[in-house]
Amino acid sequence: MRPEEIDRKQVGMRIRKLRDRRHLTQKELVEKAGLSESALRSYELGNRHPKDSHIKLVAQALEVRPEALADRRIRTS
Q1: Single pTM value for the model
Q2: Is residue 74 over pLDDT 70?
């Protein structure tokens, strides 16, 4: 698996984990965040990486800081 695929999967897992902790369905989260269900589903499945603006919307809807969803790897290049 390529590094960017791992990044997408990790962000998606964080979104789903936090959504589950808040006892929200995907539909409820997209309504709070103002995103489409297909976009959120793609993020959670790791098929797409959310734009920074979408990470901010999801984080706000989940009542966490955007850093809680972002890639935590340190990049040196």
Answers
A1: 0.85
A2: no
